[in-house]
């Protein structure tokens, strides 16, 4: 049996023979606890890590000289000694919690429906080739993995359902020898784009309020804060250019209930539970995207960040274990960023494109699909072991 790595304070207190210290990781600005922050070190050839719980609490039960604290939304911090609370500086502008009221201005939904009506023409109507820079990192109790891929990406104009990449540079850093290239989060950031998924159903199922404290150099931009009408684990904010009726940025946080409903088939989940005992106990997802206007006047993703954290259980057989090893699967705590810039005006016809299939979390895989996933995990890349001085 395999239990996805879950950091429980009580388990650490009983199992660890090292001196232990309980600490809280918090936001330096708001002093709110930071969940799923990674705390890790590599010393003496061994990698050790901890992940904060929902209250920002972790227990360090291993020896360290230098300890790294990291989270996708915060600046990395390295410490040689610990206090009861460790503060991290946010990378992005923080928005105070705003109450989303039942009464909202009529214009909000009208503007959002106009975005939905025109988004195909504005965001997805033209084939394009852009330079991309993708970086993903995965951490569990005893492992560290980082992969960076840079090159060209093209989006075809057939309904925003097809991306190809031509990787020019690939680089892996890990605690052990591996050649796996993980593009799962790249596919999620592309195929789970906020504007692409914004539709009438999303507008009807959420409540919206305007953030009156939002400031922008563009007088037409407003920030809308939203929350699900039906679930407490779905909230976020979007910046809308009300003159052009386009989304300039979006930030959305979803929890277990919403992710199960939106990202996974309940029938398939029930089937997996019956076959292998698979279940999902916790599933947190954070998605942040900025859009830029291209020279032709259309809009495109400019910068995306994505955090994925899952806790679950299954009875992993040898076949599943081998597949995870071949594709780099099995990590519960993953973070990724994607940056675009305009490409050269001409692209050689001779370059080789690699297709990026759609994103998924749980599915029944045919032999062909499994081979496709394995091939995507073996793109050319240089490799370095994580060094102690890299912490």
- Mean pLDDT over all positions: 85
Helix content: 10-25%
Beta strand %:
35-45%
The number of strands is 20
Q: Please report the distance between the alpha carbons of the first and last residues.
A: 32 Å
Tell me the major beta sheet.
Answer: 13 strands, mixed
Helix/strand order: EHEEEEEEEHEEEHHHEEEEHHEEHEEHE
Shape: globular
Uncertain runs are: 1-17, 325-330
Radius of gyration: 22 Å
Oligomer: single chain
Structural class assignment: alpha+beta
**Count of DSSP helices?**
9
What topology emerges from the helices and strands here?
Blueprint: E1 2-3, H1 9-15, E2 21-27, E3 38-43, E4 46-51, E5 57-60, E6 67-71, E7 74-79, E8 85-88, H2 106-123, E9 128-139, E10 144-155, E11 163-174, H3 184-191, H4 194-197, H5 200-204, E12 206-210, E13 221-228, E14 234-241, E15 246-254, H6 256-263, H7 266-276, E16 279-293, E17 299-314, H8 318-327, E18 333-342, E19 354-356, H9 367-376, E20 382-385
Parallel strand pairs: 2-8, 11-20
Antiparallel strand pairs: 1-17, 2-5, 3-4, 3-6, 6-7, 9-10, 9-18, 10-11, 11-19, 12-13, 13-14, 14-15, 15-16, 16-17, 17-18
């Amino acid at each position: 049996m395999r239990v996805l790595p879950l950091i429980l304070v009580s388990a650490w207190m009983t199992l660890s023979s090292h001196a232990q210290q309980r600490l809280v990781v918090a936001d330096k600005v708001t002093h709110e606890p930071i969940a799923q922050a990674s705390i890790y070190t590599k010393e003496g050839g061994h990698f050790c890590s901890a992940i904060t719980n929902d209250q920002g609490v972790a227990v360090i039960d291993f020896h360290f000289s230098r300890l790294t604290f990291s989270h996708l939304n915060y600046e990395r911090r390295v410490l040689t000694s610990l206090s009861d609370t460790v503060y991290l500086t946010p990378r992005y502008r923080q928005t105070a919690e705003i109450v989303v009221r039942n009464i909202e201005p009529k214009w909000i939904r009208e503007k959002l429906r106009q975005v939905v009506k025109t988004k195909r023409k504005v965001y997805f109507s033209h084939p394009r080739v852009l330079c991309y820079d993708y970086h993903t990192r995965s951490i569990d109790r005893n492992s560290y993995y980082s992969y960076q891929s840079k090159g060209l990406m093209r989006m075809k104009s057939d309904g925003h359902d097809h991306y190809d990449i031509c990787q020019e540079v690939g680089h892996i850093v890990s605690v052990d020898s591996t050649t796996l290239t993980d593009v799962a989060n790249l596919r999620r950031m592309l195929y789970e784009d906020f504007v692409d998924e914004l539709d009438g159903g999303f507008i009807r199922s959420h409540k919206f309020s305007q953030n009156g404290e939002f400031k922008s150099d563009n007088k037409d931009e407003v920030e809308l804060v939203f929350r699900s009408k039906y679930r407490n684990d779905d909230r976020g904010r979007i910046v809308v250019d009300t003159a052009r009726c386009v989304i300039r940025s979006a930030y959305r946080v979803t929890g277990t209930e919403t992710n199960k409903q939106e990202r996974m088939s309940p029938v398939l989940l029930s089937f997996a539970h019956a076959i292998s005992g698979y279940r999902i106990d916790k599933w947190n997802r954070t998605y942040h995207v900025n859009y830029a206007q291209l020279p032709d006047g259309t809009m495109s993703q400019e910068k995306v960040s994505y955090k994925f954290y899952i806790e679950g259980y299954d009875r992993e057989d040898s076949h599943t274990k081998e597949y995870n090893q071949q594709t780099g699967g099995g990590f519960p705590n993953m973070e990724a960023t994607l940056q675009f810039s305009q490409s050269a005006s001409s692209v050689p016809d001779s370059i080789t494109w690699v297709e990026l299939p759609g994103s998924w979390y749980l599915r029944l895989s045919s032999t062909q699909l499994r081979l496709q996933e394995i091939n995507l995990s073996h793109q050319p890349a240089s490799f370095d072991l994580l060094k102690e001085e890299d912490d």
